[in-house]
Specification:
alpha+beta; two-stranded antiparallel ribbon; 5 helices; globular
């Protein structure tokens, strides 16, 4: 992924208002991010722990999504898998995130949800630079194939958010 400027990140958001995009907390110092290790930029808001953001390059330009995480259930689930990178984590390391749909559907409150790595570090898990707390099943896919799968899964989620089904 190429390095992004603050203005490009803020202007990329499609499912929140320009005012919300202007007020959101960016992920630390952008100059310190290892952009070449990323397929998308994902971070949680340290000032509002239930807010998270994803920005990814697509053929038609950057797309940013504002996400909201649900409170962790106190159920009996011991492990969960991230829908983007397919990493199996312990229960506390995967969260249900929802994104408001664009257009009229979003104004009506329609959302799309999926389970994602709670720290949004899918790019690091995919490349083997970070290890999950759960079991580590072996995969026959190469790193490049895992990256392609992660990007494809994320793009499917973005396509759902961009669908105005009101």
């Amino acid at each position: 992924m190429d390095a992004l400027a603050e203005s490009a990140i803020r202007n990329s958001f499609v499912n929140c208002s320009k005012g919300e995009a202007k007020r959101l907390t960016l992920p630390g110092k952008l100059a310190d991010i290892a952009w070449s290790d990323l397929d998308f930029l994902g971070w949680r808001d340290p000032k509002a722990v239930n807010n998270a953001y994803v920005v990814l390059p697509r053929e038609d330009g950057l797309v940013g999504l504002a996400l909201s995480s649900a409170t962790q259930p106190k159920g009996r689930v011991k492990q969960s898998m991230c829908a983007f990178c397919c990493t199996v984590h312990g229960q506390a390391d995967v969260s249900l995130f929802s994104a408001r749909r664009v257009g009229a559907a979003g104004k009506l409150g329609n959302t799309v949800g999926t389970y994602i790595c709670a720290d949004l570090a899918c790019c690091q898990y995919t490349r083997g630079r970070r290890s999950a707390s759960g079991p580590k099943p072996t995969e026959a896919l190469s790193v490049d194939e895992r990256i392609e799968r992660t990007v494809s899964n994320l793009n499917r989620f973005v396509d759902e958010v961009l669908t105005d089904n009101a």
